[in-house]
Amino acid sequence: MRVILVAALALAAAAPARADAIDDYVRHQMAVSHIPGVAIAVVRRGRIETVRGYGLANLEWNAPVGPDTRFQTASATKIFTGLALMRLVEAAKLRLDATLDQFFPDAPPSWREITVLQLASHSSGLSDQLGEHDDNVAATVVAAMKAPLAYPPGTETRYGFTDFVVLRAVMEKVTGKDIAAIFRDEICAPLGLRDTGFAFERQYGPFRSALPLANRASIHAWKDGEQRVSSFLYGETGYSAGGLYSSARDFAALFAALDRGELLEPGSLRLLQTPPLLKSGKPAGFAVGWSAGSYHGVKTVGHSGGPALADILHADSEGLTVIALTNQQRFYPLLAQGVADFYLPPAPAPKAMADRMPALTGQMRSALAEAAAGKLDRTRYAAAAMDGLVPFLEDFGQALLVAVGPVQRVALIEDRADKGGRARRYAIDFERKRMFWLFATDAAGKIADLHPVGED
To answer: Beta-lactamase-related domain spans which residues (predicted)?
Structure first.
């Protein structure tokens, strides 16, 4: 009896201690990354464990973050799109294996090979290079029909915008409703979500207007030593891909309901979270609108957006969901994983291999240090890196490296020849986080790639 009592007291004490540690972690990240406001929610096996606000939703009015503060979720909107799609599948209004020619009579022959599931998992082959066209759903669909495919459907995964505009058109055709009404009727109304919706922001020449949303957080961007109010116009055409506002309270209620089986049947929920197989037999990089990967060796799904205005991590096997919402545009999605660190089992140690080219590792470490300091030496980089990699390292990449702190230890876990150069994967222990990074050089020894990757 005494052993049971001691164990019970230990468990009771553990929850407040963990909450205090999470508070310390979040506040430290806010300080080093200049985040004005954060909302964190944790859901465990259908029960909302905590919903907490930190800092300010609006620096101009000193408005504090609360459970009902509405944050821009950006690309994490796709969590709602995936859920709404599966609700329509359960209602027999469409099938995931239905091909696009069933919804668009004027579709080109190539669309007979593209399924609804491939749209939702970013494996359709539709191009994002559509040329000039009117900014509405119908015109975007017509432009997508005219554009050649970027790759054969079902052969690879490429995260893109067109997939979700066409997916929205399909969902609106079978329901006779626009995407906002679909979200309302299929998700928000059944669960009583009061803080979730769109602002319908529009640009009229130099003027921008939007619906007023109570308790909306202002977005900020820290750059060159100062905080600025920042905004990005999420056009209505892309509302299935980004632009939804929501709160930590609503997200927590949503995932608690999913855990309890109140929104989707178990089979539909499993399908939602499972990446379909590509034609090669390998899994796609996305499930049904949700990103998929692993963390601490545990399979995870969710999505981030903005890139870290919203950051959602769900580990089904652990019964854990972490919701992290921020109003700092210049930040990298780290908070959800950081909070999950307090709940998940310890990560397995990476299997290091002998480093027979330590000079390459030194080159990589120097590049990370320069990027973190905001002093990137562009002469180190290949010409092909100037369009995507270098701008990343000078902006969001720098914000990421500041957030995780200096490099402490490096382990080489993969090394191969690649296009005359080398491609390597490292497990890197930064001061505040272990991450996996890809580093590649070209035949001339210039840096061709340097970016974070998943565990697997």
So the answer is: 22-330
